[in-house]
Design a protein that fits this description.
Helix 7 links the parallel strand 7 and strand 8. Strands 1-4-5-6-7-8 form a 6-stranded parallel beta sheet. It is α/β, with parallel strands linked by helices. The chain has 11 helices and 8 strands. The N and C termini lie far apart (45 Å). It folds into 2 domains: 218 residues, Aldolase class I (TIM Barrel, Alpha-Beta Barrel); 64 residues, no CATH class.
Amino acid sequence: MPGAVVWMQINHPGRVATVPFTRRPVAPSASREPVPGYNLRKPRELTATRIETLIRSYARTAELAVAAGFDGVQIHAAHGYLLSQFLSPLANTRDDRYGRDAVGRRRALLDTVTAVRAAVGPRTPISVKLNSADFQHGGLTEAESLDVATALADAGIDLLEITGGNYAGPAMEGVHHTGREAYFADYATKVRELTQVPLMLTGGLRTRDTMEHLVRGGAVDLVGIARPMAFVPDYPARILAGEPEPLLPQGPRPIGYRPLDGYLQLAIHNAQFHRVAAGRTPHTHAGIGTVLRALTTMSAAMTSQAVLPR
């Protein structure tokens, strides 16, 4: 597509890594993810030396991405993955320079930004994906996240993508914001009042009117669309062409246990993207048959991983 650019997202799962990618995950502290499945394995606490090694690994990955032709890189620090775990008072109970207080908890992320910038140079854009909050009691709060956003702007990032939630509180799946668009728009407005770093908002964006209102009003500079494309891969093109917004399936009725509701959403969309990757047409509905097939496929994959020798 003329004018299109491609950025690589760089991520480390930390304590939510799945077998066989790691037999025993690592994390800021040796505490389990409080979600069924992930809480079976207690992670190893990273040493300060190992943290510094991982930061260099982020930088090397970014360097390789640019060498391979990517136009920019994004550091994933949201959704309960490793750098998000460092930001969380629940997941990070360290008593050294990478923990102890809010300043310490964001040090790993800021050091990663500095290392990546040194690796890719001043011309390659760097983005960070950040939770507005963890939506989990005791996790990263909105107030602390705003401080992180300000520090990232001061560190010279080129784009901040705003999202929220993790596997325990899957706000990014919409389970905390049923019936509304632009889940994290209020937080974006608060960030805009503190800094002029370019902002991208992802989560619950469905209609052209909402997207145009946010961008034209200056609340954000970009909008992100992800889950709708699992059912309608050309969703953004239709929006840009002025066509009516494609209808999306409602999905399964929430059962009230947010981690499981999030898992159901993840399973459905995971199955859809696998269909697209295999060259098949996405399902246009999310009926009970589709849900059951998605759950069977994803559960079988996770079960086969879990029984591998350790």
